[in-house]
Design a protein that fits this description.
260 residues; 2 strands; 74% helix; elongated
């Protein structure tokens, strides 16, 4: 016989599990939260802490067969889809910094220098890694992690559990928003990359006027030195561009959370 005080424990545990699905999916796809360096246990605790008050603001009913049923699986699939869309929208804005670093690194001749990206665990150019770390600091400094949590909580009002799934127009808007990665990344890299192209043109003119000159031994150090100096000069402008890309990602996540 189950003691009277533990009669509703199983139902409460299933409710907690459902509350963790959407925030957990968003944190897996979002920057910082989805980093492999963040322990899974910590992510689960934060997802539960966010999901419990979020599910309390909207009334919903568990499926008659529980979560381990066709209706329950459909409910979980809708929650996973909503969470992944919110986190992925922020990740798109975050990836602009990595693209900008790859563009500048290739222009400087550092395309062969790679490091392990802590966000994805894959190898990425050194400058892309540098700008990715800078984007992480800016994301935390502007309170992006708190804004993301607020967006996840507010999404329960427009997309309650068990309600209609995300519309096809919303998914299409998210796919179209993926073009922001290339536009924002090139915008961030433009001040340095354009100047490096001019350096490459000067090196090409020197190669034509002095064919005996070893262009590799002269051009690569010149491009590296020019790139480092230009990045130091353009650092405030690049930081503003990264913050704008992050804000656009958060704005897109907020638009999806509003159901429009």
């Amino acid at each position: 016989m189950i003691p009277q005080g533990f009669a509703g424990v199983e139902a409460q545990l299933w409710l907690w599990l459902l509350a963790m699905v959407r925030p957990g999916a968003a944190f897996v796809a979002a920057p910082v939260f989805g980093s492999p360096q963040v322990p899974i246990q910590l992510r689960a605790i934060v997802a539960l802490a966010v999901g419990l008050p979020a599910t309390a603001i909207v009334p919903f009913a568990m499926p008659d067969g529980g979560l381990v049923s066709i209706a329950g699986m459909a409910l979980i699939a809708g929650e996973v889809l909503a969470g992944l869309a919110l986190g992925f929208a922020v990740q798109i804005g975050f990836s602009a910094a990595l693209l900008a670093g790859e563009t500048i690194g290739n222009a400087m001749g550092l395309g062969f220098a790679g490091m392990v990206d802590p966000q994805s665990g894959a190898s990425s150019p050194a400058l892309g890694q540098f700008l990715s770390i800078l984007a992480t600091f800016l994301f935390l400094a502007m309170g992006g992690h708190l804004v993301l949590i607020t967006i996840v909580v507010e999404s329960y009002r427009a997309l309650p559990p068990g309600g209609p799934l995300m519309a096809a127009a919303q998914i299409r808007n998210l796919v179209d928003f993926g073009g922001v990665v290339f536009a924002a990344g090139l915008t961030i890299a433009l001040p340095v990359a354009f100047a490096l192209i001019l350096v490459q043109l000067v090196m090409a003119m020197l190669a034509r006027t002095a064919p005996a000159l070893n262009l590799f031994s002269v051009g690569l150090p010149a491009a590296l030195l020019a790139g480092l100096v230009l990045m130091a000069i353009a650092a405030p402008v690049m930081a503003d561009g990264i913050m704008q890309a992050l804000r656009r990602g958060l704005d897109m996540a907020e638009l999806l959370a509003s159901g429009s």
